[in-house]
Write a structure and sequence with these properties.
Number of strands: 24
Shape: globular
Largest sheet: 11 strands, mixed
Distance between the termini: 29 Å
Strand content: 35-45%
Number of domains: 2
Radius of gyration: 20 Å
Number of helices: 2
Helix content: under 10%
């Protein structure tokens, strides 16, 4: 983050405290008076990775929320990458290094229905730090391959999405598909690719994976054929990445029985594009984070959180972190974009960092323009604690 981090922390913390009372209104499910704790920023943000300094190649920059696990050696292995999916590894968030030559990249296949074009790792799960199961958000856009979208001229028109299954047997240094394409799709789109459908559709991304009641749970962003976006609660067995169930508003149903996009949206009123999911064991609460725009004067963007007792009913949103942004991406030396938040407690006993204790870090991406006019991305971490 450019400028004086202490000053920026003070500005951000002051705004957060001022807005908490306004944003956290009583919810029909969980109201402000019901919350035993609230997250409070406890220090200035610090740099985890700078694309300009740490990139393995020009396309290697944070382009997803950070997800991590602890490997068999005790180091943190973290993915917050582009479709190159190059990991960072180190003993702590402040001592991470890129492992160039490692990771995973899809084949760039121009065949749309294979969805083997570009893939971003969204969630990881391991029991031993050696054998890793992962979910990846796969996408195909005809513009990348010089093909036209008859339904529209924009670069992202005719966008098709699905979720693929990945595995690693070397502690996350390399991944392969669970099965060859197209059977690598654990959540395939409902319909085949069509250059007559302009709106993005399919399963767009998942949050990290969290273990609950013997199932791996995740919040999945879904776009339907008519362009409606929703967030759905889904779960999968740790024993088979293909045995998915979705919440239909009353109970979990097997997705192989024709459910697919029939999942019920969670989160109640407003948009809820959850990117990170954590469990607070002492409070028996779930906490989800996402980013959203804040008032334009001054310009900025916030990390918002919502809490839940059951992953279905969620509180109203509250802002926990505000990042000041330049008014233009051409402003040199200042960040002009922020996004992809997630939460990691590097002291957690949970090997997959799905649980947080009394202190943790909020991670997010910032895009900035350097003194030469080139744009790069940074991965930032901000310390938080839970206050009564």
């Amino acid at each position: 983050m450019t400028g004086n981090p202490g000053v920026q922390w003070t500005r951000a913390a002051g705004l957060v405290l001022g807005l908490l009372g306004l944003l956290l209104q009583a919810s029909p499910v969980i109201g402000q008076a019901d919350l035993p704790v609230r997250p409070v920023q406890s220090g200035p943000p610090f740099l985890v990775m700078d694309q300009a300094r740490d990139q393995c190649d020009r396309r290697d920059g944070p382009d997803t929320p950070a997800v991590a696990f602890r490997n068999a050696k005790g180091d943190i292995v973290l993915f917050a990458s582009s479709y190159r999916n190059v990991p960072l590894a180190g003993p702590s968030l402040s001592r991470m290094r890129k492992v160039c030559g490692a990771g995973f990249a899809a084949a760039g296949n121009p065949e749309p229905d294979l969805l083997d074009d570009r893939t971003w790792i969204d969630g990881v799960y391991t029991e031993d730090g050696v054998n890793i199961t992962a979910l990846g958000s796969a996408s195909y856009i005809p513009h990348r391959h010089g093909r036209t979208c008859s339904a529209g001229p924009a670069r992202t028109d005719c966008w098709l999405n699905g979720i693929v299954g990945l595995k690693s047997t070397d502690g996350g240094m390399s991944f392969s598909y669970l099965s060859p394409p197209p059977n690598h799709l654990v959540l395939p789109p409902d319909d085949r690719f069509s250059d007559q459908v302009r709106v993005p559709r399919g399963y767009v991304w998942t949050t990290n994976l969290v273990l609950r009641d013997g199932w791996l749970n995740t919040l999945v962003r879904v776009r339907t054929h008519n362009g409606v976006s929703k967030t759905c609660l889904m779960r999968v067995s740790p024993k088979s990445a293909y045995s998915w169930e979705y919440w239909n508003g009353r109970a979990f149903a097997d997705i192989r029985d024709g459910g697919k996009n029939r999942c019920a949206p969670i989160g109640g009123r407003g948009n809820f594009p959850a990117r990170g999911l954590s469990f607070l064991p002492e409070q028996k609460l779930w906490l989800a984070v996402y980013d959203s725009r804040t008032p334009k004067d001054p310009p900025g963007r916030g990390v918002f959180y919502r809490v839940s007792r059951d992953l279905v009913e969620w509180s109203e949103p509250s802002m926990m972190l505000w990042v000041p942004l330049a008014k233009s991406r051409t402003t040199k030396g200042q960040s002009f974009l922020m996004g992809y938040p997630s939460i990691i407690d590097e002291t957690s006993s949970d090997r997959n960092f799905g649980q947080i204790g009394k202190s943790f870090h909020v991670l997010h991406m910032e895009a900035y323009t350097d003194e030469t006019g080139a744009t790069f991305r940074k991965l930032m971490a901000t310390p938080f604690r839970l206050a009564p």
